[in-house]
Specification:
Two copies of one chain form a homodimer.
Chain A (H helix, E strand, L loop, with lengths): L2 E6 L7 H16 L3 E6 L5 H12 L5 H25 L4 E4 L6 E3 L8 E4 L2 H8 L3 E5 L2 E3 L5 E3 L4 H12 L4 E6 L20 E3 H9 L7 H10 L3 E5 L7 E4 L12 E5 L2 E10 L4 H11 L7 E3 L6 E9 L3 H11 L7 E5 L2 E7 L9 H11 L6 E5 L2 E7 L3 H11 L15 H8 L4
Helix pairs in contact in A: 1-3, 2-3, 5-7, 6-7, 8-9, 10-11
InterPro entries (chains A, B): AceGlu_kinase-like_sf, ACT-like_dom_sf, ACT_Aspartokinase, ACT_dom, AKii-LysC-BS, Asp/Glu/Uridylate_kinase, Asp_kin_monofn, Asp_kinase
Function (chains A, B): Catalyzes the phosphorylation of the beta-carboxyl group of aspartic acid with ATP to yield 4-phospho-L-aspartate, which is involved in the branched biosynthetic pathway leading to the biosynthesis of amino acids lysine, threonine, isoleucine and methionine.
Catalytic activity (chains A, B): L-aspartate + ATP = 4-phospho-L-aspartate + ADP
Chain lengths: ~425, ~425
């Protein structure tokens, strides 16, 4: 008998029919003798609809009110799921973030969990109930509702699992685990049975949408075992945990891609000291998260500087650059949205020299131009033209020996559809 | 400078545009120097939608979960209204039932308020904010969310007004006050400037939908002055308070009608002692609220017994009667849904004999058959055929000198539309 925390995202609870499926899944676990806690997101598009209502009333809605508004979405799904479980003759009890003891700091819209008080949930379990916890929300020290921002519900699930010392935190989604690459663009991608926290963090941070980075960070910090699996099948997914007991570790664990960044180029910049400092401190001051920086070779003392940043920061980035253009004597600012970052990730990289050389050679042989490069001890990222995303992922996947013998059959999606999927919700 | 509590129902906050109107109204009061508290219902049809979702998952949803589900509706409208006020440059702060200190008993779905702790709301007012309180909800001693049932938001408003010792509790709706009769069926109805608690209670209890009976009861108990007025104009409405300072009180204050009751007739009942007791104790045991009872003259030791009860109790009433038919040796059970109760209400009735005689004579002259009669010291109710509802109200309105010189111009509605309007939400 185990204690299992199961997190279901918005797609899994989007309709009464889907909520029934989730209820059945939870009851099956209960029948198998486990203690069961569910953590749920808001139904389908609820959050978007609430954001739309707020936008109709206030261009810049106060953060406190926004949290109070958005937190209702999870309260609806938590109650409905509890009702569905009770309808099948099992005890259920729902808990808001407050009642589940999710205590956060006061930063509305992106609060961080500071403590989990699990007494009430534990009490419900001891009385034989399936506990249903609203994801994405907590309460600050003053008793005000907060929300956790993107990845919030995954983080709630991991935090609840930690608080209850659960055996595993199962995160259900529409994919059946963590793959060596996105199977939608790389048909020979393999599902991983297990992956360590570091590799998972780098993959999540590089665009793999299956698990939210914050949740993985939390899990690593508190040694919570995550099981990423499909809401629509009973197949085992991928375990994320401390040590992978594989005898021989692959050098590269997986390849992620991210089409959500944009490249900003400042043309005609005088190549003199202090210019870059001025530019990037202005960007930092304006909350633009600069990822990679590329400075071209100077000609006649004039050069181009490019950087990449999240698409969400584009407007702020352009405003900042336009403002200081006269200041640094530069000519113009151009934005390229059609780029992709492709990242090789693997703890094994640390002890394997030559990864970068092999990657560059592979891309070169496939006529894929590298626009920028960045690295960490266990990651190598390159920026390529957006149109070459799938090709880049596939040739690297083959070159580093990740290809499966079987071919993934799902219809291939367009780059836009992938981008939309990768960047979805919380 | 006064402290004003303003309650807005679901229709008044049904869309972002309407919420903007409410925000403007509140700000105008603030600009006039008043302290302002708003109490809001859920937007438009939200509650019905949530009830529908619950019904899709559970035929008999657990009361605790139902409360948690339904309470989200008011949380959405409270946040949106606060945002709309802030967008216009005024401070606003929203409060759930819990935060507004609405402490209730543990009876989920129809909780009663036991205490109001107004410190947080008062604090917000002192800091210059317009406070926005979610109606219809509270929290029990264990911290679980409760809802107040029908009339809940009106009751919240009166309770908040009592807790803050407000000067007035304004209840906004789509009608501009309390009328001597429903102007939709009685075009010569007059708006009352003022009405006392007792008369208002009898009118509300007899089908006048403008104010919820529970709220009026609460107001009477704690001497809260209610101002019932239109959400769509600035005209004064009707004040409900202890004493009406009128020099000469009218005998009849108003006429209410109620088409929501049904008449159940048990035919062929042996006229012997104990039968009625058996019948009505069975009905009471099955939570049927019997209103009026009519026993026909016996012929050959066989009689008919009829009673009226709320339409919502119809199914339970019929089941109960069918079950005991063999027991009391009766023939059959027939239900008539097309009836109306018409009630004359007036504190002045106490000191004016002959009201009943005059009413019966008036109805007789108009060929309106009386199916049942009931009275209280300040009310006389008759049941008539549903098709004669408007005619009955009008002829009594004229006979008791209530007719206005001007004629109400709104299009007349059908009996069904009126019934739907009279029985609407919370």
């Amino acid at each position: 008998m185990s204690l299992i925390v199961c997190k279901f995202g918005g797609t899994s609870v989007a309709s009464p029919e889907r909520i029934q499926m989730v209820a059945k899944k939870l009851i099956a676990k209960k029948q198998a003798g486990h203690d069961v806690v569910a953590v749920v997101s808001a139904m389908g598009k609820t959050t978007d609809e609430l954001v739309g209502l707020a936008a109709a009333l206030n261009d810049n809605p106060p953060a406190r009110e926004m949290d109070r508004l958005l937190s209702t979405g999870e309260q609806v799904s938590m109650s409905l799921l509890a009702m569905a479980i009770e309808a099948r003759g099992y005890k259920a009890m729902s808990f808001t973030g407050r009642q589940a003891g999710i205590e956060t700091d006061k930063i509305h819209n992106k609060a961080k969990i500071v403590m989990v008080h699990s007494e009430r949930v534990r009490d419900a379990l001891e009385r034989g109930a399936i506990a249903v916890v609203a994801g994405f929300q907590g309460v600050d020290a003053e008793g005000d509702i907060t929300t956790l921002g993107r990845g919030g519900s995954d983080t709630t699930a991991v935090a609840v699992a930690h608080g209850l010392n659960a055996d595993v935190c199962e995160i259900y989604s529409d994919v059946d685990g963590v793959y060596t690459a996105d199977p939608r663009i790389c048909p020979r991608a393999k599902k991983l049975d297990v992956i360590n926290y570091d590799d998972m963090l780098e993959l999540s941070g590089s665009g793999a949408g299956v698990l939210q980075m914050r949740a993985v960070e939390f899990a690593r910090k508190y040694h919570v075992v995550i099981h990423s699996r499909s809401a629509f099948s009973d197949a085992e997914g991928t375990y994320v945990k401390e040590e992978t007991d594989m005898m021989e570790e692959a050098v590269i664990t997986g390849i992620a891609h991210d089409t959500s960044e944009v490249k900003v180029t400042i043309r005609g910049v005088p190549d003199m000291s202090g210019v870059a400092a001025k530019l990037f401190s202005a960007l930092a001051g304006n909350q633009v998260s600069v990822d990679m920086i590329i400075q071209n070779v100077s000609e006649d003392g004039i050069t181009d500087i490019s950087f990449t940043c999240p698409g969400a920061d584009k407007k702020r980035a352009c405003e900042t650059v336009e403002r200081i253009l006269p200041d640094i004597n530069a000519r113009e600012c151009v934005v390229d949205e059609d780029i992709a970052k492709v990242s090789l990730v693997g703890t094994g990289m640390k002890s394997s020299p030559g990864i970068a050389a092999k990657a560059f050679q592979t891309l070169g042989e496939n006529n894929i131009n590298i626009l920028a490069i960045s690295t960490s001890p266990i990651r190598l990222s390159v920026v390529v033209d957006g149109a070459q995303t799938a090709q880049a992922v596939r040739c690297l996947h083959t070159a580093f020996g990740l290809d499966s013998d079987s071919v993934f059959e799902e219809t291939q999606l367009s780059a836009e559809e992938i981008a939309a999927k990768m960047n979805k919700g919380r």
